[in-house]
Design brief:
One of its GO terms (biological process) is protein insertion into membrane. The chain folds into two domains: 157 residues, no CATH class; 119 residues, no CATH class. With 338 residues, it is mostly helical. It is built from twelve helices and two strands, in the order ααααααααββαααα. It has a two-stranded antiparallel sheet with strand order 1-2. It is elongated and about 65 Å long.
């Protein structure tokens, strides 16, 4: 079952890797060299991250909306604090969901890019893990990854360590040193990426809310998980994850610098830069944050626009095809006397 589900992703991973390997070989890199295959994995990361940029933009918007609606969330939580009966819990859930719906916030939107990357991560793990079987013919070739190319990738080394080697299944010191260095770098870059998000793009007022505390736990927990599970990963997978972290760090630095969260240290730095250049800093808002706002985020206190006579309803809405109502014209014909 899992073989059938992951086969298209494994085929995609193998196709991208072989494509970059052919390109690097074409420009003169040795085809059997470990650096050529390592750079092919880097190319795979670049292709995947470019494809995920639209989802990353959605992730940024979701995270920002979650930060901006925190004051309203805290009001709801304070309203039902200490009330543990079922009716109160249900009302709190309904008001929270109504807030999400009104502001267009998806609490799981920030996790989507990570979730979508996971299948590719497992696909690469299975491709690299299956290289020895594919090289000696015990496993069928995978798309453009022929038996000859699989044997070449399996025998290629990086600082004396095979790309399919792990810390636990290798005997040589070279493989253990290379895997341990990559595991430490992978854990450090994961911690640095999360810390950059917490220290520069989190408002001081939001550091005590549950979401900030959750991110703080993730900041310390994720590197620890990678450090514990890393010895089971092949060197090629560790390279993939390290390059992914470096890409995320650079992408996050760019976004924080250009579009910081409201009230954060990065926003103050952006305001200072814009003030020095004589530019105005645009403040971010969430449409529908207040119940008085309409769907476009504009307050209902504003005077409503008036339509043309004969084309508006009593409520001031546009009549006709778009308004869904038809305005009957008044008759000016005088009544006949009986």
């Amino acid at each position: 079952m899992i073989d059938t589900l992951l086969f298209p992703l494994e085929w995609f991973v193998a196709t991208i890797m072989v494509g970059f390997h052919k390109a690097f070989t074409f420009i003169g890199l040795p085809s059997e060299n470990g650096w050529t295959w390592a750079l092919s994995i880097v190319g795979l990361v670049i292709v995947l991250r470019i494809l995920l940029i639209p989802l990353f933009v959605k992730q940024i918007k979701s995270s920002r909306r979650l930060q901006l609606i925190q004051p309203e969330m805290q009001k709801i939580q304070a309203k039902y604090k200490g009330k543990k009966d079922q009716e109160s819990r249900q009302k709190m859930t309904e008001e929270t969901m109504e807030l999400y719906k009104r502001t267009g916030t998806n609490p799981f939107g920030s996790c989507l890019p990570i979730l979508l990357q996971s299948p590719f991560f497992f696909a690469l793990f299975r491709v690299l893990h299956g290289l020895p079987q594919m090289a000696d013919g015990r496993k069928e070739p995978l798309g453009p990854l022929t038996q000859e190319l699989a044997r070449q990738a399996e025998n290629s080394t990086l600082f004396g360590a095979q790309l399919s080697s792990t810390f636990l299944n290798s005997d040589g010191a070279a493989a253990k040193i290379v895997t341990m260095v990559l595991i430490v770098l992978m854990s450090l870059t994961t911690f640095t990426t999360q810390r950059q998000l917490m220290t520069k793009n989190m408002p001081a007022a939001a550091l005590d809310n549950p979401m900030a505390k959750q991110q703080k736990y993730i900041m310390y927990l994720m590197p620890l998980i990678f450090f514990i599970t890393g010895p089971n990963f092949p060197i090629g997978v560790l390279i993939y994850w390290l390059v992914t972290n470096l890409w995320s760090m650079g992408q996050q630095f760019y976004v924080i610098r250009r579009m910081p969260a409201p009230g954060s240290a990065a926003e103050k730095a952006l305001e200072e830069r814009n003030r020095a250049k004589g530019r105005e800093t645009k403040k971010l808002t969430v449409p529908g944050l207040s119940k008085d706002d309409d769907a476009d985020g504009e307050s209902s206190d504003k005077p409503k626009p008036t339509g043309a006579p004969g084309r508006t309803t009593a409520s001031g809405q546009q009549a006709g095809k778009t308004g869904g109502q038809r305005v009957q014209p008044k008759r000016n014909t005088p009544r006949r006397k009986r």
